[in-house]
Amino acid sequence: MPEMPTKLAEIVDEFATAPRDVVLELLLEYSDVIPPLPAGVDRDELEQVPECQTAFFLRAEVNPDRTVTTIFDCPPEAPTTRAFAGILAEGLAGASAEQVLAVPDDLYQRMGLAEVISPLRVRGGTAILARMKRQVREQAG
């Protein structure tokens, strides 16, 4: 059984062990990780995550070498939601489809975020992960 990528495991550990007052700072740092939509990609080509309080869109693509490429679109005025995507973007960079599918569904709870941000926001982050994994599962076959 594959494990989640080392980089994502390190991020989870960093959050889980950080003092509560530092966790929000870490989240803000990850909100800056999301690159703008690639040229030629339109928001209409991405799947919306309605569970998010903010307009959030994503697409996960399984490449021929089985690595996964993710595209996220989220407005700058939604730093927490952007941070969820930033954590996934950085933690899953270069990951295989199997590694993405091995990411635990309670990722954000493991990071200790449920103690720092609202349950509604954690649910949005969990929905982002679930939709991304579903897209990967559909393509990986």
Topology, pairings included?
Elements: H1 6-17, H2 20-31, E1 47-48, E2 57-62, E3 68-73, H3 79-91, H4 97-101, H5 107-110, H6 119-140
Antiparallel strand pairs: 1-2, 2-3
Helix pairs in contact: 1-3, 2-3, 3-6
User: Looking at the structure, what is the overall shape?
Assistant: globular
Mean pLDDT: 93
Looking across the biggest beta sheet, what order are the strands in? 1-2-3
| Structural class determined from secondary elements | mainly alpha
Give an overview of the whole structure.
The mean pLDDT is 93. α3 packs parallel to α6. The protein has helices at 6-17, 20-31, 79-91, 97-101, 107-110, 119-140, and strands at residues 47-48, 57-62, 68-73. It has one domain (6-140): Alpha-Beta Complex (Sufe protein. Chain: A). With 141 residues, the protein is mainly α. 48% of the residues lie in helices and 10% in strands. The chain contains six helices and three strands, in the order ααβββαααα. Strands 1-2-3 form a three-stranded antiparallel sheet. Residues 15-135 form the Fe-S metabolism associated domain. This is SufE family protein. Belongs to the SufE family.
Structure keywords:
single chain, 141 residues, mainly alpha, Sufe protein. Chain: A, 3-stranded antiparallel sheet, 48% helix, 10% strand, globular, SufE family protein
